[in-house]
Amino acid sequence: MTLKEFINQKILTKRKGVLFLGARPYMGKTSFAVGIACEVAKEYPVAYVTLEMSKEEWINRAKHYQYITEEKDLSKIDIFDEQGLNAAEIIKKCNKEYRLVIIDYLQLIDREDGNVKDVQKVLKELAESVNYPILILSQLSGEIDERESHIPQIEDLQLTQLKEEFFDEIFLLYRGAHYDKSAPSDLLELIMKNQILNFCWIEDRLAIL
């Protein structure tokens, strides 16, 4: 399976769906999501809501990993880098006919005194009203770092007040080298409900093993 095949099979088929990409810090979830956005944007319009990085930082990361070579490759990507947006404001920005919307990341969405579940509900309503999937990035609980096995599990969503059944697809990232220096530094595991895919960085390019 190539990266493009993974995207076509696991992401773009989930029209009107809310997809979850979760990991502990330093696992590479933003870099992975940037790669997905750039791959989809070769053919379709994409919106990327980055609540942490500036647009310039986003572009520099895309160039570093060779997802793009020049800025004209971004012609089909709308990058929104305003911090502190709430769910309603994100909806207003994503009212075009996109093929994919990526939100980076869940915990940085302004909740306006609500909780994560309230944000989930609004984004679910958005997904059901449009014809594209929404991929939401999220940090996983620090409790994962405290246990013997640091490999995330689907059940770990409960640690951050998230419900598995809310999402149409769940992806969890794990990079063993962050915890074990003897592990391959270029290996990235993508954990799904019934499948694990191994990605690696080959000359700064993301590939599926």
Structure description:
The longest helix is centred in the middle third of the chain and has 14 residues. The protein has six helices and nine strands. The model has no long low-confidence stretch (mean pLDDT 85). With 209 residues, the chain is of the alpha/beta class. Strands 3-2-4-5-1-6-7-8-9 form a nine-stranded mixed β-sheet.
What attributes does this structure have?
single chain, 209 residues, alpha/beta, Rossmann fold, 23% strand
Tell me the number of structural domains: 1
Total strand segments: 9
What is the straight-line distance between the termini?
8 Å
CATH superfamily: P-loop containing nucleotide triphosphate hydrolases
Contiguous uncertain segments of 5+ residues: none
Task: Specify the overall morphology.
Answer: globular
